[in-house]
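Recap quiz, item 2
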Amino acid sequence: MIGIFDSGIGGLTVVKSIMEQLPGYDITYFGDTARTPYGSKSSETVVGYALENTEFLLKKGAKIIVMACNTVSSVASDSVADNFNIPLFEVVTPATEKAVKSSGKLIIGIIGTRATVKSGIYEKKIKAIKPEAKVYSKACPLLVPLVEEGWLKKPETVMIIKKYLHPLKVRQIDTLILGCTHYPLLKDKIQRKIGKRVAVIDSSIAVAEKVKDFLETHTEVDNLLTKKGGFRLFVSDITEQFEKTARATLKRNIFLEHVKL
Amino acid sequence: MIGIFDSGIGGLTVVKSIMEQLPGYDITYFGDTARTPYGSKSSETVVGYALENTEFLLKKGAKIIVMACNTVSSVASDSVADNFNIPLFEVVTPATEKAVKSSGKLIIGIIGTRATVKSGIYEKKIKAIKPEAKVYSKACPLLVPLVEEGWLKKPETVMIIKKYLHPLKVRQIDTLILGCTHYPLLKDKIQRKIGKRVAVIDSSIAVAEKVKDFLETHTEVDNLLTKKGGFRLFVSDITEQFEKTARATLKRNIFLEHVKL
């Protein structure tokens, strides 16, 4: 099946997009809720967690792995690729490619966790395609806890979004990458505050499209994937909050299985 | 020496109080920054972490242990006491005793993490002393990330504090327990929003006073403690953010030592 992991709940936006793009494919998800969040931790620690999470999913029978977390994709995807010989997807490249295609002025903004922004990976990848692009990044570390709390529509959340987006707005970006899989849950508010003329690129949709394209051209891998509509959801810590948000995000009944890594 | 641990940075307010109450005592601190925060995780997970942290400090030579975290004190202190035979201090009891003494009307409010509030431990301990007391609790899960971000004076932080305190204010509490070691860093703002007539009890000061009292009456334990003014600071993940906030909280130079648990 398709193995997907994240530091916690954010990667469920990727699960949702993959379920829409590839209906019926069996999916196993691991959310590292006992060690969440990753975005404010060091690269060394995040790499260690990413290797453990990948190994867990492979043991469960994953044939391809999606790292549904921008922090992991930014700082740990090379290490995971070096250690495991399987088709591996990260969320940064698909979003980058989509942003470059969409941007007319090539003035692109990125929001993400502190670790993602510090890695500079979006800027590097965008400039590798279009060296003339102007790229502005802003770390938004409070958006993850606000999403995890379910404060999706509170005025305080809107104020904080406005404050974070201000430096990108004055740069007159025409494209904004949501460089964290939690942020699609705030997409409406972000679109309103950055302005309706700015194209907002959702990395969870971009990676799902990428996986679909890959499987269409790699039938030998596609044949390894079972398609019985199965969905297993493992977490390293079971909390009511996760259960509630997971149900709301996926709009289906879920059953959490506990695993200690 | 005195061993002190916390999920991350909050316990440094306890270190600061103990340094003030017991100047010169050697202290070793462990901040579990690779797995922080604890407050939104399950009791089972927090108990496991607390046992590992205690064991680490004992190996380093701690003769007494202070659990400088309300979440750990609320859900894991019995398990730690069952597993280790040493003088053990938690932050809930000292704050409770101080609050009951201070409260004229016996209408007491408590703010803390989701895990601390859910445990109901403050209410139980207050009612064990004064069954007639009225106790109102409010979980404030966003205050920890706001403190960790250093947003101590931002208007958004003040708005969120006001929103959290509102249900306690309408109950006309006369005493408010800061049931999380992060909150003393927001004490001014909290005092302003709850009103100057409400006594605000800081659990980090209360536990330091308790440790001092204990050592004065238990000289056989006090004699085991070295007093060379040493301070070692271990963390499970090294980040710039931690270093910056630690230096600001303790107002001294610090050197972080990394340890993987």
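Chain A has a mean pLDDT of 95.
Chain A is about 50% helix and 20% strand.
End of item.
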